[in-house]
Please model this.
Amino acid sequence: MAATYDAIVVGGGHNGLVAAAYLARAGARTIVLESRHKTGGAATTESPWPDAPEFKVTRLSYVMSLMPPTIINDLKLVSHGYKVHPMGPYYQAFPEGGSIKVYADDAKRNYDSVVKWSKKDAEAMALWDSWLAGLADVLGPMLLTVPPNLGSRKPRDLIGTLRLAWRNRGINVRTVADATRLMTMSIADLLDDWFESSQVKGALAVNGVIGTWAGPYEPGTAYVMAHHSIGDVGDGHLGNWGFPEGGMGAVADAIAAAARSFGAEIRLNSPVSKVLTSDGRAVGVALANGDEIRAGTIVSTLHPRTAFLEQVGEDNLPADFARDIKNWKTRSGVVKINLALAELPNFTADPGTDLAEHHTGSVEMAPSMDFIERAFQDARDGKPAVRPFSDGVIPTSFDKTLCPEGTHIMSLFTQWVPSDWNLEPHTAELEAFADRMIELYDEVAPNFKASILHRDIVGPHQLEHEYGLVGGNIFHGELSLEQLFHMRPAPGYADYRTPISGLYYGSSATHAGGGVCGIPGWQAARAAMADRKLARSGRRRALFARSAG
Ligand SMILES: Cc1cc2nc3c(=O)[nH]c(=O)nc-3n(C[C@H](O)[C@H](O)[C@H](O)COP(=O)(O)OP(=O)(O)OC[C@H]3O[C@@H](n4cnc5c(N)ncnc54)[C@H](O)[C@@H]3O)c2cc1C
Model:
């Protein structure tokens, strides 16, 4: 006999855990099925060096900003150990000398930092921050909105579209223009409109290309910057990010604890191989070991190609939906490099190995827009970047739980390698790529190379095969314009429902994903709970009609 639950969540990444917590909180008997030996998915803290288990790295994702207070409060995450240290400024030391710090939404400090490079840019910083704040006022609430099914004439969809229009009735011509610019411009063109110095533009361009298969001159990258700039970590500075204590795995652990506290069961080492359907309805799942588990509600949080093409099967899906998922763009060319350091980087521009402010934020290797673009062009030409760019962080500047006293962990989020490196491990080439990356930091902080105790390199093949991130894309799919909002993951299915009744979809490939924000999992659970409520009241009505008759 197959085990039976009210709800099955496929995938124990942070979105699956959020979905399970909400479903269990609503009273559904819920089970999470996770293929790996641990939960968290791309939000994971691991010890990659068997000989040095005392070093823990936040292996893939590394900073928090996008999780809304609703989820943090509903799930009481703080009481389950969720704690975020707001991080310091963007810091770039230049090979030709000097350095720059850029603070999130802090006019006074930005002026003082930027004025040495350009008075015009120093004056523009405050205006830029308030321009972003205006856009965040519009885009922030949109992240929590269920995208309307544009083009549909069904009454429910038309009401959804009208509701969205009504909610945004206060938007004026200028805001629409700004949002249009954001959606259509490259980050390079946008920054050219605001700033003149290559130093400021390089620092601000990084957020436009994080996780993106596009250089800073590609249209649409301005939006990627906004996606990464409209969160906060509760410190009152828009766009700021933070280090969760215990690494990103601790965030997933807090959500898992919340889910368990509401009664959800979490089963590890349990890969799902099929979503079972009957007459167009989801009825359960089959595990890779052949076991079956039944439930009337299933929430999948896997990559869309896996969730739909592999697990539901093309034959069970409408042809246009299956085509949209096949055409889903899921490249990125990201390589994550995790390092254990014997001491902090000693920058020529800001000497010293004692902890200083410039160690506490993003320790970038993105000295100019052209530097970033060159790295992308190399990868587009089919070779790994000769001079890769990096969004580096040293979480242990605040978090003392990850390594022994006196040592540090540094996390380098680097780009790009060719988009097809998910197909082969490319081990030796990744080692050489990491050497070049480290060499670039060594040019500006000459103790860097010698300070490295251990290194861990995770490329696109490992991202796909160990973590299920198809194509190596960090968000389960690119944040390109044709894959946003009502198009994410496919037109007609952006409301966290799917063509299969009873099957909901809440991975980062839905609206508000990617990132460790939990919104897709929350929305998928809400859609499932709303439908369960509707079905229950329908059943009650039918029962009442039968007994009255
Ligand atoms: C290198 C890297 C850096 C990033 N940096 C950041 C960052 O700093 N900040 C940020 O906010 N976001 C970051 N992201 C993005 C963010 O981590 C992801 O968008 C998010 O974690 C995805 O969450 P998810 O729950 O939707 O999916 P996942 O985390 O991918 O979870 C899916 C889960 O399903 C499991 N699974 C797969 N196949 C099966 C199966 N057949 N059966 C059962 N279970 C299965 C997987 O093991 C996984 O646990 C980064 C991502 C990467 C890869």
